[in-house]
Design a protein that fits this description.
The complex is a heterodimer of chains A (154) and B (125). Chain A is an alpha+beta fold. Chain A has 4 helices and 7 strands. In chain A, strands 1, 2, 3, 4, 5, 6 and 7 form a 7-stranded antiparallel sheet that branches. In chain B, helix 1 crosses helix 5 and helix 2 packs parallel to helix 3. The longest helix of chain B is centred in the N-terminal third of the chain and has 13 residues. The N and C termini of chain B lie close together (9 Å). Classes of the chains: A alpha+beta (154), B alpha/beta (125). At the A-B interface, helix 1, helix 2 and helix 3 of A face helix 1 and helix 4 of B.
């Protein structure tokens, strides 16, 4: 596995968000992220394979996930349907990023098993703690702060 | 001829996107059934007439791999065309599914055009 995992996840994250959700994330230092109000969500997925194992977490404001769902479905962001599908939209985006990351990183013949993604709300304290992680990839998209954390064990 | 389609994905968002995609695609669509995993899909197959199955792979309770295995050993279900729509990108796994009898594969993220073209190709419409 010659490619750097952090570089690959960064590329794949931006590609999937742009293609599927029409959001254009800019990589931003944690200290420069816009302050977030409202609920924050965390989605997680774990993968295991011959080429290694690891975990990916996405952290995002619920209101952004609502926009994500709206963009997926082509509906109004403030609709009830977009609100109800917000957590699921974050999970599905993580699922897509994980699948595409594994191929780009480990090659097309590598085989991995993925867990079903989960999602849960996080506290302000947990959000603040994530921003201090050295391995956190931080992005800004339409004034929303999004964080991606990849942890790998070969 | 209109096709009855069974859509299998644990994500309500993907099911909603696929439903919209199938409705706007230039394909004759009859009834549309949905299921959240392989087990629910088998329940639908038992009760309804299905012409095409479109399934995800990574699902709770019963995966798409297990659904495909169950369908292709079943006397009545093995003739139903299956298209896999998934984030899975391993050629090893996809080749294995094709050898088992899966007719089509579209990788997520997908465009409505990709889905429409794959259905046309698989169903010969």
């Amino acid at each position: 596995m010659a490619k750097d995992s952090q570089t690959v996840i960064d590329e794949v994250f931006c590609k999937v968000l742009e293609k599927q959700a029409f959001l254009f994330p800019d990589k931003t230092p944690a200290a420069e992220l816009p302050p977030q109000s409202g609920n924050m969500l965390c989605a997680d997925i774990t993968f295991f394979g011959t080429e290694g194992k690891g975990k990916i977490n996405f952290y995002a404001p619920e209101i952004m996930c609502q926009e994500l769902a709206a963009n997926f479905l082509g509906i109004e962001p403030d609709s009830e349907e977009a609100a109800s599908k917000a957590p699921d939209a974050l999970k599905e985006m993580l699922n897509m990023v994980c699948g595409n990351f594994l191929t780009d990183f480990a090659g097309e013949t590598a085989v991995f098993d993925l867990t079903v993604p989960g999602v849960a709300p996080i506290s302000k304290e947990e959000w603040s703690a994530v921003l201090t992680r050295p391995d956190a990839l931080c992005y800004c998209a339409d004034d929303y702060a999004i964080v991606c954390v990849l942890v790998m064990q070969e | 001829m209109a096709y009855n389609v069974l859509l299998v994905d644990d994500s309500v968002t993907v099911r909603a996107v696929m439903t919209k995609t199938l409705k706007i695609a230039q394909i004759p669509l009859g009834e549309l059934f949905t299921a959240g995993n392989g087990k629910e899909a088998l329940d639908v197959l038992k009760e309804k007439w299905v012409d095409l199955v479109i399934t995800d792979l990574n699902m709770p309770e019963m995966t798409g791999f297990e659904l495909v295995d169950a369908m292709f050993v079943h006397e009545q279900y093995k003739a139903i065309p299956v298209i896999v729509v998934t984030t899975e990108g391993s050629t090893t796994r996809i080749d294995d599914l094709k050898k088992k009898g899966v007719r089509g594969y579209v990788r997520k993220p997908f465009t409505p055009e990709q889905i429409g073209e794959m259905i046309t190709q698989v169903m010969g419409a």
